[in-house]
Specification:
This protein is mostly helical. It has a single domain, classed as Cytochrome Bc1 Complex, Chain D, domain 2, CATH 1.10.760. It is built from 5 helices and no strands. The N terminus is likely disordered. Heme C binds next to helix 2 and helix 3.
């Protein structure tokens, strides 16, 4: 994964890189990649390609909890930030347990 560059120096250039590509380069994605891909392939979790603006729980073929499909949420900066802080608090019953407690990490993922 990544280009082999120094992740700490990597600056997200949103004009030339998509958000998720940028995030991948920052290596933060290693915290999510066991369960998620950013290509259109589901793993344990639904793929995250095009997740911004997507209603929660709507990837075809992904296995979701009832909590997720019934949530009525759409993923954007606010909902992702809240969900990633403490998934089970925002969405009791979700099967995703991974969290990003560090606000800077969330900002990097969601930016
Ligand atoms: C241990 C496996 C695992 C890890 C690690 C994990 N997730 Fe998840 N994720 C899941 C599962 C399973 C779901 C489906 C949850 C449900 O339906 O309640 C999910 C759902 C999601 C969703 C909702 C997707 C949709 O289509 O509605 C987002 C967004 C998400 N995860 C982001 C992340 C991010 C960002 C990370 C890394 C910080 C991460 N996840 C790490 C397992 C994981």
């Amino acid at each position: 994964m990544g280009s082999g560059g120094n992740a700490a120096d990597f600056v997200c250039d949103r004009t030339s890189l998509g958000r998720w590509r940028c995030w991948q380069e920052k290596t933060l994605f290693t915290r999510c990649s066991p369960c998620h891909s950013v290509t259109e392939q589901n793993k344990v979790g639904p793929h995250l390609s095009g997740v911004f603006g997507r209603p929660a729980g709507t990837v075809a073929g992904a296995s979701y909890s009832k909590a997720m499909t019934a949530s009525g949420m759409t993923w954007n900066e606010q909902t992702l930030d809240a969900f990633l802080t403490e998934p089970t608090r925002v969405l009791p019953g979700t099967t995703m347990s991974a969290r990003l407690p560090n606000p800077q990490d969330r900002a990097d993922v969601v930016a």
